[in-house]
Amino acid sequence: MTVTIVGTQLGDEGKGGIVDVFGEAADVVVRYQGGDNAGHTVVHEGEEYKLSLVPSGVVRGKTGVLGNGCVVNPATLFEEIDALRERGMGPDVRVAERAHAILPYHRVLDGVEEEAKGDDLAAGTTGRGIGPTYEDKAGRRGVRIGDLLDPQVLRTRLEYAVPRKRRLLESFDVDPDADRFEGAFDVETLYEEYRAYGERIAEEGMAVDCGEFLARRRAGGDRLMFEGAQGTSLDIDHGSYPYVTSSNPTAGAAAVGSGVGPTVIGGGEVVGIVKAYVSRVGTGPLPTELGFVEGQTPEGGGDTSPEAEDLATYIRDEGGEYGTVTGRPRRVGWLDVPMLRHAAGVNGFTGLAVNHLDTLAGLETVKVGHAYERDGEELLTMPPTTEQWGECEATFREFDGWPDVDWEAVAEEGYDALPTNARAYLEYLEAELGASVYAVGVGPSREETVVVESPWE
Ligand code: IMP
Question: Ligand 1 pocket check: which of 281, 283, 328 to mutate, most ligand atoms within 8 Å of Cβ?
Fold first, then answer.
């Protein structure tokens, strides 16, 4: 039995919290794409854990696996593992030998390319080197985790890649030998650092043949949970290209990115995580946007009326909408239902979890972007190009707001204890997306989740 968790929007839907709740019954939590661009926060016994690479399930003693579809920065991997150990935990983390390693030059090139692209084209990346690492993977010049375990192979890979990275950096008029890069473009420096990571991975028995490892765990009766990072509209194929990440957060990638067959993933549950409003980090259109964030909202985008600006600030502060990885304020807006219908089609959800319902509490009226209007035509899902999406005007539906209540008590009592108007909002979503609500997040901690149905049962 598997459960796959996928973001339906633009990341930051609160997947970590739901993985935490539904992961309770899992034995293994697997990431199948992305790298240390995925900030997730888990609150465990009153303590907050911020992780960006290691699957959050390890905080609860699950085996965490970084699948072959991930890009792994070994420095971050060990920083996170060491930080958990310092807090008294014994994290069990495995890394696919087929996963690609992020090297320091990837991070440098990520930043340089973003700067060269300028405001119009830059995706507003997290600067973690994600895109350049996937580029090298596709270009067959990447360094895989398995390569770190074999010094001779590592050297051969670096000797091919590094001179090309140097020339690439020079094409941006940047000196690869500048002190600030600390040897990021030097074969010997990289070889020593990455060989040492390889030794540690081997010593700690972390490297796995991912598909084979997961098949064995499954055969032994273990339950697997697949944790998608980012969200459907950030998917390189199905998102708002080019303002996307360089991998596939969508459910199909759970198979490709872990080596588990698609019939296994499809035979399990696929749960879409929805935030009750929308947020975005970085550039690109956002038809339901409230307010304007300098450097991120495109010119002419966002509702800049004083009421909308106030609402945006309210939602941002109440919802803690500041990047986990970067600390940047996130752009926010009303729920975008065409975006969700698109996500439902791409992922085939069997269930939904709706987060941050408490953030909207206390508002007199809650709006949703029910459809778009473009060239006098009504659209119910996102159009395929970002330019077309940018031309869409949202048409709104209004719901009566719900009061702020004792959410922990509501979570304990169950779904029927939710305010009536909040339930009407959820039922609208179920009807539009053709999937039932399995859980409702009404606060940051695990105790503040209304569990309607377990995907494992
Ligand atoms: P990258 O993944 O660092 O290459 O960034 C590409 C785009 O994805 C940028 O718009 C980022 O802001 C966005 N992004 C990447 N990871 C996350 C995430 O975990 N939450 C929200 N946005 C993200």
Answer: 281
Active-site residue, 36 included: no
pLDDT value, residue 133: 98
If you average pLDDT over residues 204-228, what whole number do you get?
98
Atom of ligand 1 nearest to the CA of 12: 20
Please check whether residues 403 and 326 belong to one and the same domain. yes
Contact 113, 132 (CB under 8 A): yes
CA distance 329 to 313: 10
Residue 16 has pLDDT above 90, yes or no: no
Q: Tell me what pLDDT residue 281 has.
A: 86
Q: Which atom of ligand 1 is nearest to the CA of 131?
A: 4
Residues 6+ apart with CB under 8 A from 207: 94, 95, 96, 97, 145, 146, 149, 201
Q: Where in the sequence is the domain holding 438, given as residue range(s)?
A: 274-451
Q: pLDDT tens digit string along 221-264?
A: 999 999 999 999 999 999 999 999 999 999 999 999 999 999 99
Instruction: Output the pTM of the full model.
Output: 0.96
Kindly state if the Cβ of 125 falls inside 6 Å of ligand 1.
yes
Q: Are residues 238 and 297 in the same domain?
A: no
Selecting among 20, 40, 100, 370, the annotated active-site residue is 40
- Tell me: do 337 and 428 sit in the same domain: yes
Q: Are residues 230 and 175 in the same domain?
A: no
C-alpha of residue 246 to centroid of ligand 1, in Å: 9
Give me the residues paired with residue 47 across strands.
44
Catalytic residue at 12? yes
Shared domain for 105 and 214, answered yes or no, is no
